[in-house]
Design goal:
The protein is α/β, with parallel strands linked by helices. 32% of the residues lie in helices and 18% in strands. It is globular and about 35 Å long.
């Protein structure tokens, strides 16, 4: 696929100085302010080990993990389909995972990013397949529409078999 923008290993991009550093660089640097808030975005439909790996990796990047669950209507706008599990079920499923300190619903309006303004994360961790989100965040940061936040792309976990779009609903 078109994953040329994604390096072999996870990376951070600091937009203030446009410098790439590794996750280990960030994790081994003394925190200038504590605690470090990490935010993730996801549909989290039919929660599976890939989602759990994503949350674990993101949790390791900071002190507090805020998981943002995409609303059903926004999923419909983005993917032209409704998730198999409704938004409150998906939120509750993520809440049961010990890696997320807070689980919140995403914005009702696609691309408004009020959740970023409200929670002020230090780092946003992205799934390996969240290309559109990465580009949208980078663009909005560049134009000053949202605050500049470090972005980190997490490594995939058995992406060929565990991507939600590949899982079938066994009755």
């Amino acid at each position: 696929g078109s994953q040329s923008w994604l390096n072999e290993e996870r990376f951070f991009t600091t937009f203030q100085n446009d410098r790439n550093v590794t996750v280990s660089d960030i994790m081994n640097t003394p925190n200038s302010k504590s605690p470090k808030k990490v935010m993730v975005f996801g549909v989290f439909d039919r929660l599976h080990p890939g989602h759990i790996s994503f949350l674990e990796q993101a949790a390791a990047c900071g002190d507090e993990l805020i998981a943002v669950v995409t609303r059903d209507e926004v999923v419909r706008q983005l993917k032209n389909k409704i998730p198999m599990d409704r938004e409150m079920t998906r939120k509750e499923n993520v809440r049961k995972i010990v890696h997320a300190d807070r689980v919140v619903m995403g914005d009702a309006v696609l691309g408004s990013y009020n959740v970023i303004h409200d929670h002020k994360p230090d780092i946003i961790c992205l799934g390996y397949d969240q290309h559109g989100l990465a580009q949208d965040l980078q663009s909005r940061m560049a134009y000053g529409e949202i605050a500049s936040v470090k972005l980190a792309v997490m490594e995939p976990y058995n992406a060929d078999t565990l991507h939600t779009s590949l899982l079938t609903d066994v009755q």
